[in-house]
Every structure is written in C-alpha cells, then in structure tokens.
C-alpha cells in the first residue's frame, strides 16, 4: 500500500506540482483499508467513491486544479419563502392529471424559518499537466481480501 501511494505522490511531485495538496480517490472499500492500515499519523485525505474500481487509486493534487469564471458577476438569489424539492433530477412540485403527482421530499423555508440561497455562475475547470496520477492493479485492501473470505457457517445438528 505504502509503495503504491508513494509512487503516485512522487509522480505528481516530479511534474513540479505541490504534492502536499494530494487527495486520494478510490473505492469505498479501498478507502477504508487505507484508513485502517495507515496509522494515526497519515493525514492525507482519502475519498471513497463508487465510481472507482476496487483495484484503482487516483491521486489528485488540488494545487493543480484550475478554476476560472467568464468574467461576469454571479447571480445570487435569496428567498425566505421558497419551496425546495430535494431530488435529482428535480421536477415540478405538483402536476395535475389522473392521478395527480406531488413531488417529494420538499422543504418550505418559510415554515421552518430558513433562508435559501441560489448562485448561478459560469465556471470552468481544468487540471495542470501532471497533477493527477493513477495507480492500477493494486493488490491490497478489499481486492486482496476478497479471495480470503471465511467459509460459510455450517448448520447446527441437534441430537434428538
């Protein structure tokens, strides 16, 4: 594990990117394996993602992320009387028809004394060359332990 993670950070540092900003992205099982096996002095952030296979670790130097706007001011809306629909994708709050459809879950900012903020800004992002390193075919963590599963429990036989 240490060899794979060190190699990824060394690859980023060799590209001239600040390696102290590295974040590791891997599967949830691999992320847990890193947390359990690395010890208390390992302070690098590890993010578990279902989009990354078990045998892959991605190192991203956040110092190499570039974010830019189009120069226009962002549009910010504030409301104390909004009804928010928490779903992806969001749909109309209600649709008349047979049968009528009501979206859920919803939250009324008026009823529970909240303020809703909406910000619309045109942004783009990019990464500096060398700020991402990918380590494939790692053989530790979930992928390695999956072949060593304990045997299934045996049924109990009672004497009668």
Key traits:
single chain, 160 residues, alpha+beta, four-stranded mixed β-sheet, two-stranded antiparallel sheet, 3 helices
C-alpha end-to-end distance = 52 Å
Extract low-pLDDT stretches. 143-150
Oligomeric state of the chains in view: single chain
Look at the helices and sheets and give the structural class. Answer: alpha+beta
Strand order of the largest sheet: 2-1-3-12
Number of strands: 12
Order of helices and strands: HEHEEEEEEEEEEEH
What gyration radius follows from the Cα positions, in whole Å?
A: 24 Å
Average of per-residue pLDDT values: 84
Describe the structure in your own words.
By secondary structure, this protein is an alpha+beta fold. Helices cover 18% and strands 31% of the residues. It has 3 helices and 12 strands; from the N terminus they run H-E-H-E-E-E-E-E-E-E-E-E-E-E-H. The strands form 5 sheets. Strands 2-1-3-12 form a 4-stranded mixed sheet, with helices on one face. A two-stranded antiparallel sheet has the order 4-11. Strands 5-10 form a two-stranded antiparallel sheet. A hairpin with a 5-residue loop joins strand 7 and strand 8. The longest helix has 13 residues, at 2-14. The radius of gyration is 24 Å and the shape is elongated. 15% of the residues are buried. The model is unreliable at 143-150 (pLDDT under 50).
């Amino acid at each position: 594990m240490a060899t794979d993670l060190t190699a990824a950070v060394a690859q980023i540092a060799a590209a001239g990117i600040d390696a102290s900003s590295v974040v590791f992205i891997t599967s949830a099982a691999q992320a847990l394996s890193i947390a359990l096996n690395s010890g208390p002095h390992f302070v690098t952030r590890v993010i578990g993602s279902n989009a990354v296979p078990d045998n892959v670790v991605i190192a991203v130097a956040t110092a190499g992320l570039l974010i830019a706007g189009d120069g226009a001011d962002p549009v910010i809306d504030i409301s104390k009387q909004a009804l928010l629909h928490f779903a992806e994708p969001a749909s109309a709050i209600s649709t008349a028809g047979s049968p009528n459809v009501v979206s859920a879950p919803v939250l009324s900012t008026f009823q529970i004394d909240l303020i809703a903020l909406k910000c619309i800004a045109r942004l783009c992002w990019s990464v500096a060359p060398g700020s991402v390193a990918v380590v494939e075919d790692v053989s530790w963590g979930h992928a390695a332990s999956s072949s060593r599963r304990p045997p299934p429990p045996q049924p109990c036989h009672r004497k009668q």
